[in-house]
Amino acid sequence: MTALERPRAEEPVRRPVRIPFPVVDEVSRHCAQEEEPETVHIEVHLPGQLASGRLRTAFTEALRRHPRILMRETPRHWYSRRYEWELTPGPEAEVVTFPPPGKDALRDARARALSRVPPLTLSPPVRLEVVRGAAPDTGTVLLLTINHTALDGPACLRVLATAAELYGGKDNSPAAPPVRSPEPVRDPPDVPSPWTPPARVAPGAPESSPGNGLLVTELPLPHRPKGSPYTVNDQLMAATALTVAHWNAEQGARPRPLRITMPVDDRPRDATMPIGNGTRLVDVTFMPEELNQELSVLLRRTAHRTRALKSMPRPQLGHGAALLTAPVLPVAWRAAATRALRRAATPWTSTTLLSNIGRIPYALDFGEEAGRAHAVWFSAPARMPRGLTVTTASTAGRLHLALRWSRALLGHGDGAHLRDLFEHYLHSTEEGHQ
Question: N or C: which end of the chain has fewer CB within 10 A?
Answer without folding.
Answer: N
